[in-house]
Amino acid sequence: MSQNNIRNMDEFAALCGISRPTISKYFFDPNSVRQSTRDRIEAALKEYDYRPNIYAMNQNRRLTKNIGIVVPYLADPFFAEIARVIERRCIDAGFTPTLFSSHGDQSQEIAILDTLRSLRPAGVLLAPLGRASDKAQIEEFCRDVPTILFDSNIEGVGAAFVGSDNFSFVSQTVEYLSRTGSSPCFFEMRNPANPNANKRRHAYLEMMRRLNLEPHLVKIDGAGWGFEEIGRVGALKVLKEGLLPTDTVLCSNDRLAIGFLSACHELGIRVGRDKDCTIRLASHDDHPYSRFTCPSLTTAAHDYEAVSDHAVETLFRLIDAGGKLETREETLFAARLIMRGSA
Amino acid sequence: MSQNNIRNMDEFAALCGISRPTISKYFFDPNSVRQSTRDRIEAALKEYDYRPNIYAMNQNRRLTKNIGIVVPYLADPFFAEIARVIERRCIDAGFTPTLFSSHGDQSQEIAILDTLRSLRPAGVLLAPLGRASDKAQIEEFCRDVPTILFDSNIEGVGAAFVGSDNFSFVSQTVEYLSRTGSSPCFFEMRNPANPNANKRRHAYLEMMRRLNLEPHLVKIDGAGWGFEEIGRVGALKVLKEGLLPTDTVLCSNDRLAIGFLSACHELGIRVGRDKDCTIRLASHDDHPYSRFTCPSLTTAAHDYEAVSDHAVETLFRLIDAGGKLETREETLFAARLIMRGSA
DNA sequence: ATATAATTTTGACGCGCGTAAACAAATGAA
DNA sequence: TTCATTTGTTTACGCGCGTCAAAATTATAT
Fold first, then answer.
1. HSE-CB of B198 using CA atoms within 13 angstroms
2. What's the CA gap between B220 and B169, in Å, rounded?
């Protein structure tokens, strides 16, 4: 490799023996130039390893190749994992993803949208905070920037929503628990941050109605995104005061369940299917840690890959279509029941 | 707020009644203009909410206000948490942080460094993969870009290293375990990804020597960053084959310990301090989940805040100094012993 | 070989802002 | 009031690249 004295595209073009506009075209889309010239450019690229100035590029391009990825809470490995998959897909498609976390905070979510505006991204994949989101601000953002919502829906906002089918989650867990033992009560936060929680409650009630069973909602206090601690404290209270109407508990999500398990252990209550166990516990999400809890969590798993893939594919379609889709799409993927030790 | 027809700094300057160079100066450092003009600019800013084009800005500025944050594995909440704190500090200081995760993969780490180069950041906070890192590439990168290493050190590379004092971690856990029961064996991966693991092993051996106790290393197989599963499989093997030399186990890190606990539960082995427990388990890191395991983990905690703060402060000093520090600094923060249920 | 389509070249302009130098104005202390 | 000092203005250039139109070249098909 020769020494890298190339200062700009002009010099590189000269070294290639190809005009600068053609080089520029190549960098926007390598397929837009004839194969033979592409080969020549790529040969020179290897020899001199020139890279165009991204700032000059993005300043002048009609559309950047940037994609914004926004998750509500990165300390939750669930989001870290989904962000990883989405990142990969974007890079493979020739885009430059940038990851943002709202860290459970409305003002940070708004600040991120503000930053994203000035990044002029080709598109954005946004998992909103949910109840804590400033819907008006998000709506306005989505009018300006091609955006796909995922994980957590806001009705009518964004070009599309891709997520999981909460009814599919709950129906499977409720059916399984009811079939194999006593029917479950539903353990959840009183004021859940995420709209999926509400959908799950409704699904629980509906399933219990269909099965002709009496529903029991167990609502616990707590705010914020520290679900494990909220679940632990809530479970301690419920267990100590004997407020649990059944010996089978279905948690709204795995992180609450992790806290619930912790409380049970503190109180010496054994959880699982064995004879010496007094409680069965199941949950939803298939959180990356749910197979390492004690006992491991019976849960309903997201189809991570399907959600990620479809969100990204939809975004690419949206970008290709110039930022507008004919109608707003909503796609939900079914859950898969994962039977483990806790129920 | 008036309608936002402002296309560039010229127009905004005209509306302000202030010359463009002064506006430009203001955006680089609001304190560099007289208070009265600053007030006028900020009043106009509120009325018209103009924001300079970041691409044009960064193209021409001698130095951008960007800061790169690189962590080895974002699905580990430990890194998510530290990244959150660092992000906050950078924003508060007027910088624009961008978060990257190597996802445990060498080629991705290199790709990130490549991306960072073309971002021309004022500075970078880098937590390397460790053993999997391409040291030569990182070294070359650090020659070009002002970089502070954190969490995982590479001798002589980067302007400074900020991390935790592994000896402080291990000395406290070993001392505590030995004082309150039988002395621990050390449970770790055979080929740990992270150099801290080696430091911890040495610290364990040294502490056992000082206490005049016989050391026992228990090395398990496994590669990659799925430490919980590695710990679980390793513990199953060790426990089934009766290879555990003592009833007290000190794991190299919490994620291995989480896997260990999972294995114990599968085998019906009770862990903790109670009479019916046959194993005591302790560990290091104070992973965000370690207080929710069953039993909760006795561990040595990082001083997250101190590490984050000092890393960021050092980076700011480095930037102010023009990218070079007189001598390479290494700062290690002591651990705090967190006594919980497992030992 | 010729007509046609596809691709590249040439030359030029503009994007929005940083920056520099010479000058003008405001400030503040003596 | 005076003068030195700080701060702002004017003017002008350059950064590296996108993009456009017209001309020149090349590839493909007939």
1. 10
2. 21
Of B74, B289, B294, which has the smallest distance from its Cβ to A80's Cβ?
B74
**What is the rounded (10 degree) CA torsion for A83, A84, A86, A90?**
130
- The answer to whether A232 contacts chain B (CB < 8 Å) is yes
Cβ partners under 8 Å of residue A18, min gap 6: A37, A40, A41
What angle separates helix B195-210 from helix B166-180, to the nearest 10 degrees? 40
Query: What does DSSP say about strands A123-126 and A160-164: parallel, antiparallel, or unpaired?
Result: unpaired
Task: End-to-end CA distance of chain A: give it in Å, rounded.
Answer: 61
Q: Of A180, A232, A115, A121, which is closest to residue A342 (Cα–Cα)?
A: A180
Sequential pLDDT tens for chain A (343 residues): 555 688 899 999 999 999 999 999 999 999 999 999 999 999 999 998 899 999 999 999 989 999 999 999 999 999 999 999 999 999 999 999 999 999 999 999 999 999 999 999 999 999 999 999 999 999 999 999 999 999 999 999 999 999 999 999 999 999 999 999 999 999 999 999 889 999 999 999 999 999 999 999 999 999 999 999 999 999 999 999 988 999 999 999 999 999 999 999 999 999 999 889 999 999 999 999 999 999 999 999 999 999 999 999 999 999 999 899 999 999 999 999 999 999 9
Start-to-end Cα distance in chain B: 61
Q: Which domains are present in chain B?
A: 9-52 (no CATH), 66-164+304-334 (3.40.50.2300), 166-301 (3.40.50.2300)
User: How buried is residue A204: exposed, middle or buried, by Cβ count under 10 Å (0-12/13-18/19+)?
Assistant: buried
Chain A contact present for B137, CB below 8 A: no
The radius of gyration of chain B's CA atoms, rounded to the nearest angstrom, is 25
CA of B330 to C1' of D11 (A): 49
Closest by CA position to A173, among listed A297, A265, A293: A297
Å between A118 CA and nearest CA of chain B: 7
Subunit contact B259:A292, Cβ cutoff 8 A: yes
User: Do residue B262 and residue A292 have CB atoms under 8 angstroms apart?
Assistant: yes
